[in-house]
Design a protein that fits this description.
With 103 residues, the protein is mostly helical. It has two domains: 1-45, no CATH class; 48-103, no CATH class. The chain has helices spanning 16-22, 35-44, 48-61, 86-90; strands at residues 3-5, 11-13. β1 (3-5) and β2 form a beta hairpin.
Length: 103
């Protein structure tokens, strides 16, 4: 469980609302269930802002004339190519791994 260190040295755990804010849930969003269930809902959720932006990109991709194309492009395995340069997304030269070495 994640703990927050207070200025006086004590530690406390995150509240469910703090965890929800970290996941980008709006304050009006309500979770139902016991404390464990609420934390599980928050932890297993896809961050709402991420999901919204991904859905917008997918919707835009399937619109006519997206980047001059009328149909979705597929790779050699038949999977949809949603991003312009998928290799750059995961193999960026600027991304560093945990050891501090360039990917």
């Amino acid at each position: 469980m994640h703990r927050i260190k207070l200025p006086d040295g004590r530690r406390r755990r995150l509240t469910a609302r703090e965890a929800a804010r970290l996941q980008s849930f709006p304050d009006w969003f309500e979770f139902h269930g016991n404390e464990t269930g609420v934390f599980n809902q928050i932890g297993n959720a896809v961050a709402p802002y991420f999901a919204m932006n991904l859905a917008k990109e997918i919707k835009k991709y399937f619109q006519p004339n997206y980047n001059g194309r009328t149909r979705p492009m597929k790779d050699e395995n038949g999977q949809l190519l949603l991003f312009h340069e998928p290799k750059k997304l995961y193999q960026s030269e600027h991304v560093q791994n945990v050891c501090g070495k360039e990917a």
